[in-house]
Every structure is written in C-alpha cells, then in structure tokens.
Specification:
An 8-stranded mixed sheet has the order 3-2-1-4-5-8-9-10, with helices on both faces. The chain has a two-stranded antiparallel ribbon with strand order 6-7. It has 9 helices and 10 strands. With 220 residues, it is an alpha/beta fold. A hairpin with a 7-residue loop joins β6 and β7. Helix content is 39%, strand content 18%. It binds NADP nicotinamide-adenine-dinucleotide phosphate. The site of NADP nicotinamide-adenine-dinucleotide phosphate (NAP) has 24 residues, from α1 and α4.
C-alpha cells in the first residue's frame, strides 16, 4: 500500500523503515520538503522510499501515520491539510508531552480530553486510530524484541479503521492476542496519560525497552 509517515524523528524513521520492509511504498513528511533527516532516510532506504512536505506525504498515502511531536501535531496536520486526510485511516502515535519545564514532562491535554480526540474532532472526515504511543520506537515495529507477550492498545471510533491498523500491526509482528481494543477514541486519554508513569518506569529500569503485559482472570 501507499503509506504516509508524518515525522522524521526516531518514531517516524522506525515506522517508515519497517513499512518498507513489509513491502509498502512510503512517503515521509516534514515541514520542509528538503528536510535532512527525511532525505537521509530516503538515501539509506532507496527502494519504495520518498520524502516531501507533510502535505505531499499525506496526499500520497492511502493510510497516514502521525509521528510528529505532540506539541506540533496540530500544526503538522494543518500543513497536511483537510483534503489530504479526508476519509483516510490516520494512525496516531503521538503523545502530548511538554518537556519545556524539564523532566518529568507534563501533558498539554489530559483528563477530559486527549490529543487523539483533538485530532479526530479537527479532522472529522479522517478515521483516527490511536495506537503504539505507549511503547518505545524499536518495540513498536518489532515487538518480538521482548521475551513473552505484551500489549499494544488501539482506540478509535471507526471499527474498519482499527481493523486496517491491526493488519499493519500484525505485519510488524504483533499477535492478535496482544492487540487490546479499548473502544472509541476517548480511550486515548488513558493511553496518553500512561506516559507520565512510563517515564518513571524507564527511570527505575534504566531502559526504554519494556512494556506491559496484562493478566486477567479467565472468563466463564
Ligand atoms: N521516541 C519514542 O520512542 C516515542 C514513543 C512513543 C510515542 N512517541 C511519540 O511519537 C512522536 C514522535 O516522536 P519522535 O521521538 O520520533 O520525534 P519528535 O522529535 O517528538 O518529533 C519529530 C517530528 O515532529 C515534527 N514537529 C516538531 N515540532 C513541530 C511543529 N511545531 N510543527 C510541525 N511539526 C513539528 C518534526 O517536523 P520536522 O521533520 O519538520 O522537523 C518532526 O517530523 C511524539 O509525539 C512522541 O511523543 C515517541
């Protein structure tokens, strides 16, 4: 498929590279079409890899990944434009983290709202799926780097969009049993707020290479 990856940071590069490995045609988007990180990624990747502005990428993609900094996400999507996002599955990996006062970060939106919901409200014709935002980038695209099962949450208002996202996640190596559908996009509030604890856990363990596994009582 033709997929857009908006973002040139470690998440954008990890997801774009894995998508190419999985056989997709990927356009990486940035504020500037000549973005050095995007150009370097194209040079390294060669086949099935292109770069352009956020709008170029979103226009080219049948599916769009948002991998932009949370504080710049709405600006980045505005640059992509309503028309380029219309009707598309928009997989939102961003977190609304504000590091302007150092570590630990705060959330720029929380409690009664989330960045995932803000995106869905602003782009009501896009089909937003919040997922992968609770993991460090290498684990997003290669979950088998951790021993044993662990979980990745999905939320979104459109069941078919979540099924499309799950298809890509399976290509990344996620098992169906590890994909936890939390329901509507409102559940992004919790998934984003987990980052406050995630930062502390990373400090305690001294590595970002960890994730949650859930143990539930068997259901009759
Ligand atoms: N790092 C991780 O392992 C991890 C894990 C889970 C979730 N996340 C989330 O994934 C997202 C990407 O994280 P990252 O670490 O890869 O990179 P990042 O440094 O948080 O974001 C880089 C991208 O954000 C864009 N950007 C920054 N400020 C902007 C603004 N004001 N307007 C428009 N675009 C702007 C940049 O555009 P240019 O390319 O034009 O510079 C770049 O493409 C974040 O929301 C982060 O919270 C990260």
């Amino acid at each position: 498929m033709k997929i857009a990856v908006l973002g040139t940071g470690m998440v954008g590069v990890a997801i774009a590279s894995r998508l190419v490995e999985c056989g997709h045609d990927v356009t990486m988007g940035a504020r500037d079409a000549a973005n050095e990180k995007a150009q370097a990624w194209v040079q390294r990747t060669k086949r099935s890899a292109r770069a352009g502005t956020f709008r170029d990428a979103a226009t080219a993609g049948e599916i769009v990944f948002n991998c932009t900094r949370g504080t710049g996400t709405l600006e980045a999507l505005q640059q992509a434009g309503v028309a380029a996002l219309k009707g598309k599955v928009l997989i939102d990996v961003s977190n609304p983290l504000d590091f302007s006062r150092g570590v630990p970060p705060t959330l720029t939106v929380s409690n009664t709202d989330s960045l995932g919901e803000q995106i869905q409200r602003t782009y009501s014709d896009a089909r937003v799926v919040k997922t992968l935002n609770t993991l460090t980038a290498p684990l997003m695209v290669n979950p088998r780097l951790l021993p044993g099962d662990h979980v990745n949450f999905l939320s979104g208002n459109d069941a078919a969009a979540k099924a499309t996202a799950a298809q890509i996640l399976r290509q990344f190596g996620w098992k169906d049993s590890e994909l936890i559908d939390l329901g509507a996009i409102q559940a992004a509030r919790g998934a984003e707020a987990w980052l406050l604890l995630w930062v502390s856990v990373m400090g305690a363990l001294g590595t970002p290479m960890f994730n949650l596994n859930l143990t539930a009582a068997p259901q009759d």
